Amino acid sequence: MSEQPASDPPPPLLYSMREEWKDVQPLDQSDLTNPLVPIFYPPEYKDAMDYFRGIVAKGEKSQRVLELTEHIIRMNPAHYTVWQYRYDTLLELEAPLDKELALMDELALTNMKFYQVWHHRKLLLLKYAQPAAELSFISKVLAVDSKNYHTWAYRQWLLAHFDQEDLWSLELPSVELLLQEDVRNNSAWHHRFFVVFDSGVREGDEDREQVLRREINFTKQKIAIAPNNLSAWNYLRGILDRVEVKYATLKDFVVPYTTPREERPVVEEEVLDLDNPRPSSSASLPCALAIEFLADICLEEGDTTKAAELFTSLAEEHDTMRKRYWDYRVKECLGTQSTRT
Amino acid sequence: MIPFRVIPQHDGPDGCPTATSFIQEKTEKELKEAYDSVPKPLILQRMRHFQWLKVLLFQGLPARYKSQDASQPWLMFWIINSFQLMGVQLDVATKQRAIDTLMQCQSPDGGFGGGPKQAPGLLPTYAAVSTLACVGHPGPGGGWDQIDRQKMYAWFMSLKQPDGSFLVSRNAEIDVRAIYSLLVTATLLDMMTPELVAGTASFIASTQTYEGGFASTSAPYYISVDTLMDEPRPALGEAHGGYAGCAIASWVLLKPFMTEEESKKLNVDKFLRWLVWMQGEQADYGGFRGRSNKLVDNCYSWWCGESLAIVESILDLQEETGHEDEFIEDEGDDEWVDTDWWLYNNKALQEYILGLGQDNAGGLRDKPSKRADVYHTFYSLAGFSTAQHRVYQSKSLQGSLRNKWKPSEAFTPSTAKGEDDRRQATRKELWINARSWKEDESSHRYVGSPNNRVNAIHPVFTLLISQASNIMDHFYGQTSPPKS
């Protein structure tokens, strides 16, 4: 992953030169003389792997196996066989899992893009069952990389698996903070959906009508700040689809985003309409995502001509990269699309 | 990495700068500088990629690839399939070395490991079996008949979860990569059974998020220790191109097993919309991103391109077009003739791959600031192929395959004895379903010169169509008698 800092201690003595490993017969990975795609392993890595294979052949599960597997994992955190054997050894030895978790804290921060680091953590939590401290650890990782996929998936697993109200209760404020920092953080938007709509009903969220209003208003405000934001529009569509509310209920909100700025005389009362915040003064208009949304409203209302017109404006002018798709939507409006299965 | 609280000064889209727009703008600048300096017309640097891959295949990989030590079948898969796409033939001796190297990874417990003496995993099993489809053959030493399917099947079942998902290996994570790997392997080798895939379609549907794309996995909720609830089953992680590609290909493979009710659980229209929004803007040169508001990356040329090819086929847009070949000699827009087939901008995608995705030293890359690696090389070339060729599931081919089918001896797992009749009926449908993808030979679209052509790829199997066919015909007992 990264260069070794100069202050690192020298690599440990090879296992083949250590008295306390004399009883293990090191094993080569292969007896093929001519394999394809050989990797030029650094000597330290090859030596450790040879002894690991020797240990597996013996079936030994001991303290020194924990040292050996940690050594290999630090060199190659993607080695799932080594992780598997380490986990078996931890269980066999009934090793203290809090100590293992502390090690994972360190490894997750330096190797956050590896599946195994997060999965091992999950295995520990399943045994250890103390999720309370996890959320603050997760925040630490997200402060380094606010979109790390594994971290988010782990956070959501933790919430779903333990399903404790005190864990859930801090999630919405945490998402709001992240979206305040970066309204384009799609991971945070997804987490909001996960918390509010996808995992049952939270304490205080029992009035679903009120929750829907809250979420729609929240999203409108975020769209007003930065209209050309796929994440926010996807969230808006997502919640309307989920609760089966028509897009047309948002027509008044959407229209001002679909026209160029100069065509839009600013009327004072409109600016004060809190239910329908207008685009910020620096927004780039018209917004393709809003035109698409309005076209879908027209389809709901049965106005296929107007919908086709809007899709055509996307194809020809406002979103030419997706011309093929908008043309397809136009054909769909006009009923000339071939039959669907 | 940019700590997200420190956002350097920039105007930002909509006058609203954030960490996301900062790296986006930085990337746009990088892409523009790189694209402007690339000679036009754009050329696929075939020889450079070939030379670069050849050194890795025969001489080996530098020490930094030790992180791939548990992905050895993948290294072979990526390199050998890149050769296949570029039309490079391997000689018999090299194929034998490939077979021997791969067979060393077969585990005594069933399945293949990430290297010799490693634990079996679904991902390396997929990579090994797919590579054997390219280089292997029936008979002694050919690999195909040395795959232990009984052990593999029992091991598959040991990874199966109550919600229809699979662990990628013992005690490991659950995700749709595992499902895709298992389904491709089981389909190619005639190992699909109703018990193996019970619940799997519903699981895949549960990973579709509100955005329309697919997440890595979903979380089951239980009423009691052994009773699963239908709801909620929240997706874990946001919609993501890589998982989307695995999910939609798996969905297609499961078709013959799906009930009417199951087949309605996936929203294809919503998926299509999400996919087309993954294509970057003009400033991104039409490359694909993997998630909303993330940066474009060449590997999504495949994951999103493959998904689009499958969706186009599901939506049944494909009849033979009958157009002439289109070679686009220059970059001029007037010479590009659009067809009704591609639902995204396949011209821009080819330009991204050729103009920004190639490393001068050989190999393909995520974007200009990244170095080439074998993963990006293969998936960029594969995405390039889907942007050039129209490969679709053909109704007429299904008809002729149906007539051609001859009853043959089926692999029967020792645990599923007594289901022979049902197996016979479904394996015929599976074979037809998987074998009926074909290239529309009359609708190629090439940016640059016709010399930029790569071979057509099967969007479901990630193999050349003929390779998927050959191995399936062998395992389903559908080969023609050898010609004398």
Automatic annotation (TrEMBL), chain A:
Gene3D superfamilies registered for this protein in UniProt: Protein prenylyltransferase
Entry keyword annotation includes Lipid metabolism: no
EC number(s) recorded for this UniProt protein: 2.5.1.58, 2.5.1.59
Entry's Gene Ontology cellular component terms: CAAX-protein geranylgeranyltransferase complex; protein farnesyltransferase complex
Co-factor requirement: Mg(2+)
Any Pfam family the entry gives: PPTA
Alphabetically ordered keywords of this record: Magnesium, Prenyltransferase, Repeat, Transferase
Molecular function, one GO term: protein farnesyltransferase activity
Enzyme class: transferase
Domain of life of the organism encoding this protein: Eukaryota
UniProt record similarity statement: Belongs to the protein prenyltransferase subunit alpha family.
Protein name according to UniProt: Protein farnesyltransferase/geranylgeranyltransferase type-1 subunit alpha
Protein species of origin: Serendipita indica (strain DSM 11827)
UniProtKB/TrEMBL annotation, chain B:
Domain of life the protein comes from: Eukaryota
Catalytic activity: L-cysteinyl-[protein] + (2E,6E)-farnesyl diphosphate = S-(2E,6E)-farnesyl-L-cysteinyl-[protein] + diphosphate
Enzyme Commission number: 2.5.1.58
CC cofactor note: Binds 1 zinc ion per subunit.
One Pfam entry name: Prenyltrans
Residue intervals of the Prenyltransferase alpha-alpha toroid domain: 44-461
Cellular component terms per the entry's GO annotation: protein farnesyltransferase complex
GO MF terms held by the record: protein farnesyltransferase activity; zinc ion binding
Keywords assigned: Metal-binding, Prenyltransferase, Repeat, Transferase, Zinc
Region of interest (Disordered), ranges: 406-425
Enzyme class per UniProt: transferase
Cofactor(s), names only, from the UniProt record: Zn(2+)
CDD domains: FTase
GO biological process, one term: prenylation
Oligomeric form and interacting partners: Heterodimer of an alpha and a beta subunit.
Function: Catalyzes the transfer of a farnesyl moiety from farnesyl diphosphate to a cysteine at the fourth position from the C-terminus of several proteins. The beta subunit is responsible for peptide-binding.
Family per record: Belongs to the protein prenyltransferase subunit beta family.
Name of this protein: Protein farnesyltransferase subunit beta
Species this chain originates from: Serendipita indica (strain DSM 11827) (Root endophyte fungus)
